[in-house]
Specification:
- By secondary structure, this protein is an alpha/beta fold.
- It contains 15 helices and 16 strands.
- The strands form 3 sheets. A 6-stranded mixed sheet has the order 11-13-12-14-15-16, sandwiched between helices. A 5-stranded mixed sheet has the order 1-3-2-4-5.
- Helix 9 links the parallel strand 7 and strand 8 (about 250-255).
- The longest helix has 22 residues, at about 340-360.
- It is elongated.
Length: about 475
Amino acid sequence: MSGGHGSLSRTVHIRQRLQPTQRVCLRLREAPALTTANNMTLIIGLLGCSLLLSAQALYSSSDDVIELTPSNFNKEVLQSDSLWLVEFYAPWCGHCKSLTPEWKKAATALKGVVKVGAVDADQHKSLGGQYGIRGFPTIKLFGANKNKPDDYQGGRTSQAIVDGALNALKSLVKDRLSGKSGGSSYSKQSGGGSTQDVVELTDDNFDKLVLGGDDVWMVEFFAPWCGHCKSLEPEWAAAASSVKEQTKGRVKLGAVDATVHQVLASRYGIRGFPTIKIFRKGDDAEDYQGGRSRGDIINAALDLFSDNAPAPELAEIVNEEALKKTCEDSQLCVIAVLPHILDTGASGRNSYLDVMRNMAEKYKKKMWGWLWTEAGAQMELESALGIGGFGYPAMAAINTRKMKFALLRGSFSETGIHEFLRELSVGRGSTATLGGGNMPKIHSAEPWDGKDGQLPEEEEYDLSDVDLDEDLGKDEL
């Protein structure tokens, strides 16, 4: 109850400080709905009050103080490279009225050097709320990072204001000289990675990057003052780095400052912050309905990737480069050693390869590498895996970073391979160190031509000139 009485007393105090005409307007604004016959009277009265109250603004177009409103604030301040000093005031505030001549004088002195503006926060409450204005006058410095203005703490004389502006300008120039732009809407985060993997999207680059590319995008529309957006920022940044690595950049995370890039926000009907939307080539934008933790975001991104990505290529090991290209960038490399072509023929080999292709499709979200070789073509590799000479077809999964491998113990079938890979993907299964702790030597081999194998032609020998009886009479020792 005490809070209610305090609020009531403050309201009464404010009403007592209003001019008589302002009190009339306030009563008109708070008036209950009138009858239809009196509606026109109410409308005319409110229009008159709007004109009257706007006329009592502390600054005019003839002053060097730039009047700022929700319609011009983004373009004038947030999208500007200039340093801005902005006063948030209320026309009825006594301290604001006292500051007005000093503010005008400072604006004239700083003309062409530092921009000086003013916001009637009583009339434009949305701007005041956006920057957490609680009292009047409040002065903020919009420097390198326009989305995170600093509070001006200096004196209220024109000289003090000019000195404070010049000091801020000097710091801004020093930062630019040292390469600190400070203009990014997304700052560096600790505890989750750098925001460098979050792509900043704007009215100018959105169509080209998002709509014009082949990649899948998850885009966050945020406002710098939004508490939920600030909580999401480190999660979004950490997820962006992980998703970039796991999808090889095929799924991207972006961010749009909707308070600056209002054309984009309006195009996609953004009403609250943060709003996350998914963009796939050729499809309309869809709302993201998942969780906001980095794990939730990563899983959603990987699902998007697997839905849109082709299965990984199944390559034959024909040289060392083929092995490196497939295995070095993958967490696991699945390698099959298939029977010799003379043992299976083309149809038999293709049936094994089809099994592998189906499993590569099933596990494509894992971004594993898939390879095969013919028995006997890479003997050092077989020996390092403990296969060597029998048990074909065989399969091993290799982690080339840890130089560990696991062997398929079950059947070479979709069911057997699925059980084998499922155990590995959850951290189970028996593993061993690759022979010698290094990748074995890989030999160059002719790639399979897709045909049945042929036995090598036997050499014919002419025995007509050989005397078979030449040594028959000699004794053996």
